[in-house]
Amino acid sequence: MRMIVKVKNVVKRYSEKIALDHFNMEVYEGEILGLLGPNGCGKTTAINCILSLLSFDKGEIEVFGKKMTPNSYDIKRQIGLVPQEVSVFENLTVRENIDYFCGLYVDDKNVRKRYVDEAIEFVDLKDYVKFYPKKLSGGLKRRLNIACGIVHKPKLIFMDEPTVAVDAQSRNFILEGIKRLNGESSTVVYTTHYLEEAEMLCSRIVIMDNGKDIVSGTTEELKAMITTSEKIVVSFVSIEDSVASLMKGIPHVIDIERNGEDFIIKFENGINNLSNLLSFITEHNLTYTKLYSKLPTLNDVFLELTGKELRD
Questions:
Q1: Which of 139, 248, 258, 263 is most deeply buried (CB count within 10 A of its CB)?
Q2: How many helices and strands, by DSSP H and E, does the chain display?
Q3: Does position 310 have pLDDT exceeding 70, yes or no?
């Protein structure tokens, strides 16, 4: 695949604070790249630097094979941005907002009208074209925000937390829309706090923390990088503490957590773990009420690599 964004060793400082610390990222044509990290880790700063909305102190950024500058209008015409905060004009209707943002990139009135109509259809706002933003629900405002960012049919779209504070129906609508955009040849860079969204949408993921890129890869590649390969959750009718402590001797056990009646057993190898646990249960005449296996999640990856939950 062709690389269309290259970020190399970018440093961004705010006085004494380092927002980006030799940050690196590559985006390839046709993918949905997930950019994950906790609040304040530098995701939005990275996007703003890529778009040349912020200057940076050190490093290189290229988009579509060219150096990105504030005056790179030929490049910016090919880029769409859906910011984290809803950024529309309150004194313009839904149609007027979308038409305004389209007009920043498209001069031909006939083409612009067609693009606006298609964007309205895409986000399903045709029943709200004469509404002002203050009359829209939070989910509908998010849809309007997306329409304004993609109406000019960009090849590269940055979406910064587009599903924050929306209802489940609007969230699903937005996620399906992102899939459709990608299916129509748009490359998407997607930031989110919702790991299940990243697992569902993203072909590749970059995890960042404290302004640094920590690791990148597909979901399966990231899961293969961590120590935990499987978790088994088990609850017993009763178990002595002395017997519970013996579970640490089961092959490949690396840690055991207790959550109420549940024992969460982490294994470093995914082979025969369930069989070994059942043998232990039989050997000690234990009766269980719950027993199931869980494969690693992106949250496990994030927790092991950063030492924190994504939403911390």
A1: 263
A2: 11, 14
A3: no
